[in-house]
Design brief:
By secondary structure, this protein is mainly alpha-helical. It has 2 domains: 2-180 and 293-322, Rossmann fold (3-Layer(aba) Sandwich), CATH 3.40.50.620; 199-287, Orthogonal Bundle (Tyrosyl-Transfer RNA Synthetase), CATH 1.10.240. It has 14 helices and 5 strands. It has helices at 15-29, 40-43, 50-66, 84-93, 98-102, 105-113, 120-123, 125-134, 148-165, 209-217, 235-248, 252-258, 263-289, 293-322, and strands spanning 2-7, 33-38, 74-78, 140-142, 173-175. Strand 1, helix 1 (15-29) and strand 2 form a beta-alpha-beta unit. Helix 3 (50-66) packs across helix 13 and helix 11 crosses helix 13 (263-289). The radius of gyration is 21 Å and the shape is globular. The model has no long low-confidence stretch (mean pLDDT 93).
């Protein structure tokens, strides 16, 4: 099965990224034909600093490689290095009603957040995402819950194109994590964990042991001392239970039993120990890769060449079917 997934080059990654996306990538690369991409063209639809962009792309590459992404088992590259992404995006725009783009939840949210940066690229973001996926004939798209609407549009565009111009694209399926698709902020457990949150709101995957300890101990909990999973009534401890479960491999019910009557402090100290131990190898690998810039860039170059071959083949078929060649 062909798998495609992309990540924006936003620099520092947190455990929400790791649990919601990276871990899926690591599992999939062991058994499927995987193509993973740093989507730098998506990143320029919202405010950015040109001098920081290349730095963030490189940092993102190192972050994913440090987390276990294996270039021998997957294709890993930077989106803008393969021009067919933008070419197919334009073509898909000719069969997509503008109303469908305006209905996208993320478009509405980002136009409210960046009122002085509302651009056509932001409106057409889902078209570029659809092109990313369809260009590589993906069967499976692992995403977080906030991207489901975009992939549904991708599926619809694939069906619409196939009906109009003949069988061209595979219609991809969505793959969501069973739990942990949305890790919440440590300071506001009803809001998704984000790097735009306060420093205390997220745990970076390369945070030091002291930083991890400080953030977990300061994490918002709930009235009472019972450690039970109830996202509506006890969102704080429920979020921490999800994090503990995903990092330990233990079921939430098992954790509830293990920490019954022990209180939040004991639970948090145990979670701190788990996170420090689990994330330590990632910190060490990152430190090593920061000294090997040429090696990292070579991985991305080789990945772009492999991706280019697939992209070229797909575009030849698209143009033939549309009468463009």
């Amino acid at each position: 099965m062909r798998v495609f997934s992309g990540v924006r080059p936003t620099g520092k990654l947190h455990i929400g990224n790791y649990l919601g996306a990276i871990r899926q990538w690591l599992e999939l690369q062991e058994k499927e034909d995987c193509i993973f991409c740093i989507v730098d063209l998506h990143a320029i639809t919202t405010p950015f600093h040109p001098k920081e962009l290349q730095k963030n792309i490189f940092e993102t590459a190192i972050s994913y490689l440090s987390s276990g992404l294996n270039p021998e088992k997957c294709v890993f590259f930077v989106q803008s290095r393969v021009k067919e992404h933008t070419e197919l995006s334009w073509i898909l725009g000719t069969i997509c009603p503008i109303g469908e783009l305006k209905r996208m939840t993320q478009f509405k949210e980002k136009t409210k957040k960046h009122k002085k940066y509302v651009n056509a690229g932001l409106l057409n973001y889902p078209l570029l995402m659809a092109a990313d996926i369809l260009l590589y004939q993906a069967d499976i798209v692992p995403v977080g819950s906030d991207q489901v609407q975009h992939v549904e549009l991708t599926r619809e565009l694939a069906r619409r194109f196939n009906q109009k111009f003949g069988n061209t694209f595979r219609v991809p399926k969505i793959l969501l994590p069973k739990i942990g698709a949305k890790i919440m902020s440590l300071q506001n457990p009803r809001k998704k964990m984000s790097k735009t949150d306060t420093e205390k709101g997220y745990i970076g995957i390369f945070d030091t042991p002291k930083e991890i300890e400080k953030k977990v101990m300061a994490a918002v909990t709930d009235p009472g001392k019972k450690i039970v999973y109830n996202p509506q009534r006890k969102p704080g401890i429920s979020n921490l239970l999800v994090i503990y479960s995903l990092f330990s491999g233990k079921e939430i019910k098992e954790l509830e039993k293990e920490f019954r009557g022990k209180g939040y402090a004991v639970f948090k100290k145990s979670l701190i120990s788990l996170l420090i131990t689990t994330l330590e190898p990632l910190r060490k690998k990152r430190k090593e890769l920061l000294q090997r810039e040429v090696y990292v860039r070579e991985i991305l170059n080789k990945g772009a060449k492999k991706a280019q071959k697939i992209a070229t083949s797909t575009m030849e078929k698209v143009k033939q079917n549309m009468g463009l060649s």
